[in-house]
Design a protein that fits this description.
- The structure holds 2 protein chains of 2 kinds.
- In chain A, strand 4 and strand 5 (63-64) form a beta hairpin.
- Chain A is an alpha/beta fold.
- In chain A, 33% of the residues lie in helices and 23% in strands.
- In chain A, strands 6-7-8-3-9-10 form a 6-stranded mixed sheet, with helices on both faces.
- Chain A has helices spanning 40-47, 70-79, 95-100, 109-113, 119-131, 147-160, 177-194, 205-211, 234-241; strands at residues 2-11, 14-24, 29-33, 55-60, 63-64, 80-83, 165-169, 197-202, 214-219, 222-227.
- Chain A is globular, with a radius of gyration of 19 Å.
- By secondary structure, chain B is mostly helical.
- The chains are: A alpha/beta, B mainly alpha.
- The A-B interface holds A 94, 96, 114-116, 119, 122-123, 126-127, 130, 135-136, 138-141 and B 1-2, 4-5, 8-9, 12, 15-16, 18-20, 22-23, 26-27, 30.
Chain lengths: 270, 290
């Protein structure tokens, strides 16, 4: 059970997140949509405790996330994995090592500094890579991979954390439509197969509609919409994006196929 | 990187085996390197201790004696300290002037040298090795060696010290500048050359705006180093506060209050320049011009 209560984040005089509250019970795949600067990324960063909230609380299963410090904070961070727009892998290390970074919170600093991971962890890392279809890249350097493959490595690192929540900050904004689809389907599959909660910031409406069970719309730091994808009409979307009548969904679309023919594709990854 | 790629393993077991083999190999090499390092360090210390003819362990407890003498004498005569500080201020100014002029001249020379020695930017790409070796040479000679030679030829005073430090600075900053310039984006340079700009125009208008904050930051760091260097050159007759320091230290007890005053001046100068330069660098990197 995730509870966000009156969360506010100010950067100097600017309010990035303005008094937002919502609950999530059980596992769900949630999409947060809105213009850039609407406070979506700031919210995810506060959830992962990379930023501090100015006021308000986030609690998860009774744990006050916003109050955790030191080792408790790092333990929480390992329970709620983050996926970034620019992947944020260590470019000069091999793919499997990058995935093994997901275990850093559990292992001693001294061992990990010398890149010493237990054999079982290495096996698990390669199994996760295999699940995401990129096991044969395990020994390559992370920066030798394409953007879509790098994002899948980042997802593998997140899975290695064995997290209860996966936060994805614009996971497909730097990818071409084909790779974007693979990454979104991967996230959906992880949600369905493992029952992990996924919260994704998304630019495009149709992505949120196709892959998410619940959509939250943010504008200028506030929540202006919270409902199912079906309730997300063009009128509501205009409101979220602050656009006039000229707004059409085609402007934000990253679709390859039309939504009508494939409303929500079943995961095609093997 | 290694054979895991070239072998194109087909199934998961192969992939795992290959990766584990790679990990094993890397651990082995890492362990061997660490062992060699520890061995060299230990044997080095043993050799150094032997060469010291047993003086190291016997002398260790005396390390604090000289500073204690200086401090206790300076403390007794602490009332004189302000007037002594005032007395040595002109000498300090001379030292700072030597450092400032040599940093300025050295940075200008280093700028030109660095652009001529950077791949992708050089005016004459074939001459890159030449300019690199030139910078190596400028760096290789310690300032004190150049200064001693120049003092012999030109006589004592601040000018030889200034030239000596400027030469070393040109080599040192040239290398750092060149490393920064290597990472500069070449697209603006290409854009300028498409308009028919000369090499100097491309460098000044296309490269410098990108690298200026880094260059300035390195130059300020060098200024700090050069203040210390010009103080040391005073020891060999280049004037400034180093000359005064050598005199007071050579005279031994009785003038330790003056030595302490000079240390106070040097220390506060370094602190001041460090503070000013770090503040300035922060303003540069956080984008004053945006």
């Amino acid at each position: 059970m995730l509870q966000v209560k009156q969360l506010t984040k100010k950067f100097g005089p600017k309010t990035a997140v303005d008094n937002i509250s919502f609950d999530v019970s059980g596992s769900a795949m949630i999409g947060i949509i809105g213009r850039s600067g609407a406070g979506k990324s700031t919210f995810l960063r506060i959830m992962n405790r990379m930023d501090r909230a100015t006021t308000g609380t986030i609690s998860f299963d009774g744990l006050d996330v916003t109050a955790a410090t030191g080792a408790a904070k790092r333990a929480w961070q390992s329970r709620c994995a983050m996926i970034f727009q620019q992947f944020n892998l260590v470019p000069r290390m091999d793919v499997a090592s990058n995935v093994l970074h997901g275990t850093l919170n559990r292992r001693s600093t001294l061992a990990t500094v010398f890149n010493l991971y237990p054999q079982a962890d290495i096996h698990q890392a390669i199994e996760i890579l295999d699940r995401l279809g990129i096991a044969e890249q395990a020994a390559k350097r992370a920066d030798a991979l394409s953007g879509g493959q790098q994002q899948r490595v980042a997802i593998a690192r997140a899975l290695m954390q064995d997290p209860e929540i996966i936060l994805a900050d614009e996971p497909i904004a730097s990818l071409d439509p084909m790779n974007a689809q693979v990454v979104m389907q991967t996230l959906r599959r992880i949600h369905e197969e493992d029952g992990r909660m996924v919260i994704a910031n998304l630019h495009a409406l149709d992505t949120a509609r196709r892959y998410c069970d619940r959509v939250i719309g943010m504008r200028d730091g506030r929540i202006v919409f919270d409902g199912t994808p079906e309730q997300l009409t063009t009128g509501v979307a205009r409101d979220i994006y602050g656009a006039g009548d000229s707004f059409s969904e085609a402007t934000t679309s990253t679709e390859i196929e039309t939504p009508a023919s494939v409303p929500r594709p079943a995961p095609v990854l093997a | 990187m290694t054979d895991a790629n070239t072998a194109e393993p087909s199934d998961l077991g192969d992939i795992r085996e290959n990766y584990l083999a790679q990990v094993q190999r890397r651990r082995l090499y890492g362990g061997l390197t660490l062992m060699i390092f520890v061995l060299l360090m230990v044997s080095g210390f043993v050799v150094a201790d032997d060469r010291n003819a047993g003086g190291f362990w016997d002398g260790l407890h005396q390390i604090g004696d000289y500073p204690a003498d200086v401090l206790s004498e300076a403390w007794e005569k602490r009332a004189d300290l302000p007037s002594l500080l005032w007395k040595f201020l002109p000498a300090l100014t001379e030292t700072i002037n030597i450092a400032a002029v040599s940093t300025l001249l050295g940075a200008c020379a280093g700028l030109v040298l660095s652009l001529l020695a950077t791949r992708g930017l050089a005016r004459w790409p074939r001459l890159i090795p030449l300019f690199r070796r030139l910078m190596d040479m400028l760096r290789a000679f310690p300032e004190i060696v150049i200064a001693l030679m120049l003092i012999f030829v030109l006589g004592g005073g601040p000018i030889p010290a200034m030239i000596a430090i400027a030469l070393h600075t040109a080599g040192a900053l040239g290398k750092m500048f060149s490393e920064v310039a290597e990472n500069a984006d070449l697209k603006p340079v290409e854009g300028l050359s498409s308009t028919g700009a000369t090499w100097a125009q491309r460098m000044w208008l296309g490269v410098l705006p990108q690298v200026a904050p880094n260059y300035l930051s390195y130059a300020l760091l060098r200024l700090e180093i050069n203040i210390r260097a010009s103080a040391i050159l005073g020891f060999v007759g280049a004037g400034g506060i180093g000359y005064e320091l050598r005199n007071t230290m050579a005279w031994g007890p009785g003038r330790f209050d003056e030595a302490a005053a000079i240390f106070v001046l040097l220390f506060s100068t370094i602190v001041l320049f460090d503070q000013v330069s770090s503040q300035y660098r922060n303003r540069l990197t956080e984008g004053l011009g945006q």
